[in-house]
Protein 1
Amino acid sequence: MSVTEESYELLSPETAAAYIDERPHLAELVDTSTLDVQEIGDGNLNLVFVCQDASGRGLVLKQALPYVRLIGPEWPFTPRRAVAEARCYETHGRFAAEFLPAFYGFDAERYVLAVEDLSDHQVWRTALVEGEVHEQAADKMGRYVGRLAFHTSLLGTEAKALKLLAAEAVSPELCEITEDLVLTEPFSGAERNWFQDELADDAKRLQAPEIRRAMARAKHAFMTRGEALIHGDLHSGSVMVRGDGSTRAFDGEFCFWGPVGFDLGLQWANYTVALARDHVLEREEHGRWVASLYAQVWDAFEDELRGLWPSRVDERGFPDAFLEDWIAVVRADACAYAAAEAARRVVGLAHVGDLETLEDDAKAVASRAVISVVERLLLERFESAEAVAAAAVEEMR
Ligand code: SR1
Ligand code: MG
């Protein structure tokens, strides 16, 4: 049986309570006799059920569909992505629990994850679209990436153990989605790309030979350089925020051993689309704050990594100078992956609310600005996060 022919029972709002009752470790978390169940999955891939009882206790059941929800059953897709997400919560939860939803368990037969109900949070992208400020969000995501960069790399894990962990965590189908949608198609004129007609010339510039060459380097690194167990899809739609500063990364189904700069680059890219939105809506103050996030996420990442560095497992093999070299590699990677992610949000298959909810004229202006940032990120060399932010701000004028 191929991975796309697997058959398993899908959950529905009507069957969620019985599902919970059959599992004592979940049944103790909510009173199923008063359970309200809402299916809220608005992402590209999965079913998501928020289950809350009358006293306000809750949990979330997330089930992988055997296809891509964004397209439908005509794009079959392995539900084993839920295994990768469980690995993300389990592994990262050991050293970064405060940045993730609490993980209540995984049902490997039906590909169901049970996690903390974060209904009192909102998706960070939604907050950015609304022009809200969440002061701690970028800092916390930078610390999250700093922790995973240390603990799941050769710095924090003994080499042989790390190789075995990485070997059992390969996730070819999920990686393929990123390799195609993020790292290839925006730069090669794919059929499923879409954008406004007036952006045709701008989109074409993304296929220039020097752009494709830079992206090929980034794609090659993504496919060959297993630095750490990265989140793998850390855009602002994969982060929940709350007014008191609580910030949690979720949707870790794309996690795999890959380049650390990918997670940081996705943050930078999504600040760029938020900045472009602020620009066309003339939200200057919010735009200034968004521009400060590039350095916030980076500084927190670096601070966390440098703080953990003295406790690395192989001090002999990795002298202090290596840390400086690696940080420079991560920064260069982050620029390239930010470019890829920003490009695909404008010309690729999966667009984002930051741009799609704008009026047509404003959307075209914002999208052009994003494409200009993409070009600079791929063709220039940036020595700091501040310089990346400055370039992004410049292209908004
Ligand atoms: C077909 S899946 C498109 C996108 O949705 C996910 O959230 C990932 O970002 C993926 O690239
Ligand atoms: Mg997702």
Note: The radius of gyration is 21 Å.
Protein 2
Amino acid sequence: MELILGIETSCDETAAAVVRNGHEVLSNVVHSQISLHQRFRGVVPEIASRSHTERILPIVSQALSDAKLTPSDLTAIAVTHRPGMVGCLLVGMAAAKALAWRFNRPLVGVDHVQAHVHTGLLTDPTMPLPALCLVASGGHTALYKLNEPGKSERLGTTRDDAAGEALDKGASLLGLTYPGGPAIEDEGKDGDRKAFKLPRTMLDKDSLDFSFSGMKTALLYTVQPPGKPKPEEPPSGQQLKDLAASYQEAIVDVLIQKLRRAAERHEMRSLCIGGGVAKNARLRERIAQDPVLNQLHLVLPPLDLCADNGAMIAGLGSILFRQGKTSPIDIDAVATAQSGGKIKMRQRKKRPVNK
Ligand code: KG4
Ligand code: ZN
């Protein structure tokens, strides 16, 4: 029997979980810091890492006790080591390293975005591959082709805002609370999705990349037409409901169109989604109704596996552990993602030596 502890602290969730044999989630404990960041309408790195420091030990203890285990029962310890806010990553990594060292267990460093990509396999280990995976959250929006466990290729990514970020900023424009995705979803429930004509940015006809910043500006200009005085009050009543419904529909439309493009262009057998935006009921409904997408084996994970959590870290940790991909105890925290996150160092021009 294989028991993996997964620890996640890359953003504003302090999370730990135990997964048995790669897919049985024995415990999944998440402490959300939303109330701490709400008044800033975004995650404040310093506040986030301080809160992780206070919460990490109780959360790990709870994940173990919920699973009725002690640390010595564990096979390995998986932890997010990239991408994320380095001050936040370091908290989870310090806890994971201490456990790995004290109990002499392997440490497995996990890429957070890849963990979202592999959530389909955690939910349904029989998911046929290759799978088309959409990762849509507050920090990332990208399409991947998952060829085999541990091996994916990125097909497209956002050139500016992430889908969740566009929802968060859009909600702020509409005077709604943070995080914006659930606030817009809630407000738009009784709204008319066609009431406001908002653009869908599709980029070149072949592109699988995303761009949401223009859509956010279009919402701004709808609420505050340029050249006119700024309205004293944010929209309210039916107008607010219609704006929320129309804006959400525009963002969901882009995600669906790009998924269709990817499914038509690449040989895929399944489709899975991950990240906080994957909790959106309209997105799920549109995927299930789409005549191209619903031909694929659909894996729409339970909501608690979509948003940031420790189970997805343990799930990918299990795959990497089985492949012998464990990490040294001095593994570093890295701010950027594994794929596409390569930093090009600017070459310094050699100056002629003055003699
Ligand atoms: O994956 P996540 O919990 O954290 C990271 O950003 O990594 O995603 C958070 C994002 C936020 O932008 C939030 O507005 C969005 O997911 N979100 C949603 C919903 N719930 C959370 N977006 C649309 N519909 C939702 N129900
Ligand atoms: Zn995430």
Note: Confidence is low (pLDDT under 50) at residues 340-350.
